[in-house]
Amino acid sequence: MSTSSAERTKILVADPMHEAGLKLLRQSPGVEVDARSRLPLDEILRIIGQYDALIVRSETNVTAPVLEAGLRLRVVGRAGVGVDNIDLDAATRRGIAVVNAPTGNTVAAAEHTIALLMAMARNIPQADASVKRAEWKRAEFIGVEVRNKTLGIVGMGRVGSEVAKRAIGLLMKVLAYDPFISAELAARQGVELVPLEQVIARADFLTLHTPLTAGTKGMLGSKEFSAMKKGARVINAARGELIDEAALLAAVESGHLAGAALDVYASEPPPAGPLLRHPRIITTPHLGASTAEAQATVAEEVAEQVLAVLHGQAARFTVNVPFVPAEDQQALAPYMQVATLLGRIAIQLVEGQLRAVTLRYEGEIADHNTAILKASAVVGLLQPVSADRVNLVNAILTAQQHGLHIEEQKGPAVELYPSLFTLEVVGSGGTVLLAGTYARGGPHIVRVSRSWLDVVPDSPHMLFIEHRDRPGLIGAVGTITGQHDVNISFMEVGRLEPRGHAIMIVGLDNDVPPQVLEKLRAISGISSVKLVHL
């Protein structure tokens, strides 16, 4: 990466960020970091066009106008879990990756949840305030033990799972609702997975750890609080808008709920009012991630994600790239290379107007979530021919905008190949079919049309030559390329039968001038010569 000022990669850090993350950014060669916290929106709009990356926390809103003005932006990083303050749709349309730091504050958020739970159970804030008023009213602060009580967890993601571990250590019974995990996985964690209605009805303590979506907004209201046990307690350290705050206040004031503990609010900072003043509602100012360790870890994590994108690498936590579960990542990462490679080759071989694309996953890869392979193939297909930026972020959206129909199929393993990825592209001038696998540390092309072969595409240029198999043809190709100082790095031939239809793939170290291509096409028996650039 060049270090001249005109070519340096520039990163704007628009919210306060721990020095650990800033240090990591500044140590990256060729990177210039501009930390300018709490800039007004008009100033961000004025300067954002200079930057390749933007890092924020929760204070700065990354709106569509900001993203439109960021002509050089390749990535927006959120130093935290949520991305509510970033317009994901606008970022995706522009091919801008949005990354976050979902694991750095996991322990801090889980520990704060348990702290709020224990504070409610033992009336710690109220007792502390009483003693500071020089009072000694022990009888007023009789609490409850959490041992043998039921904790209901809504959302068994990273934080919810960590809360469950700690609650089990406190000898609590843990129920959970999460439509996106299996009962087997929950059971391995010592958690009983039940419908949401049961979690609400059976919990002595109920804690929320789910993202804010159209479906979860206001998920706890008057109906749900009425369905809870009399004397139950509610904790919210996830998103303020998950709870109807007026309904929560009414449930506590009526005595139906024994108390509540809130770290997040529908509006932050929350307005002064009865919710904040109620003696049985504990409130903290969004402290879930506020530990020294979490701040450093989150800053480092988002810095790593941003640098990965800027260096053309895959970021682990890209929010607007097709989601790949952790268990699928290791299996599919190599085949992302295969899918992109085949797409890049196919678009140079197909003739005429694109009409349809079929992707086939066979063998071990077919057992995984293949959305990322679909996006990778589309990147290979459209990136060389699109005037707009096409990457994993906006690949599927771009395909839809082009009206490109993509069919996906899955099947069992093919002989010799534990996993096989096949791409078939139909154009108005014919069909191109390529299949590939991953072996010995790299992609292999193993099928072209009906011919099976084995090509390691490690040359910058390749010739795809369709011909009728006959003696002397390979030599004729080598003679012409040699006469024009075009060096051959490899040659592979696949044929259906002796002296029948065959495909020759020739790897080249040099580009091929048009006049050489014409000489190759003039060789007797050759029906087609196409040059592919990698």
Structure described in brief:
This protein has 534 residues and is of the alpha/beta class. It has three domains: 9-104 and 294-310, Rossmann fold (3-Layer(aba) Sandwich), CATH 3.40.50.720; 106-283, NAD(P)-binding Rossmann-like Domain (Rossmann fold), CATH 3.40.50; 331-533, 60s Ribosomal Protein L30, Chain: A (2-Layer Sandwich). The protein has helices at 19-26, 41-47, 64-69, 88-93, 106-122, 124-132, 158-169, 183-188, 196-202, 222-227, 245-253, 274-277, 292-310, 326-349, 371-382, 395-401, 473-483, 514-521; strands at residues 9-13, 31-35, 53-56, 75-78, 97-100, 150-154, 173-177, 192-193, 205-208, 232-236, 257-262, 281-283, 354-363, 405-411, 419-427, 430-439, 442-448, 451-455, 461-468, 488-495, 501-508, 526-533.
Provide key terms for this protein.
60s Ribosomal Protein L30, Chain: A, Rossmann fold, single chain, six-stranded mixed β-sheet, seven-stranded parallel β-sheet, alpha/beta
The structural class is alpha/beta
Unreliable stretches (pLDDT < 50, length at least 5) are: 1-5
The CATH topology name of the largest domain reads 60s Ribosomal Protein L30, Chain: A
**Number of strand segments:** 22
The number of distinct structural domains comes to 3
User: Could you tell me the mean pLDDT?
Assistant: 90
Radius of gyration: 30 Å
For the record, give the distance between the C-alpha atoms at the N and C termini, rounded to a whole number. Answer: 21 Å
* CATH architecture tag of the largest domain: 2-Layer Sandwich
Task: Report strand %.
Answer: 15-25%
CATH homologous superfamily (4th level) name of the largest domain = D-3-phosphoglycerate dehydrogenase, domain 3
Count of DSSP H/I helices: 18
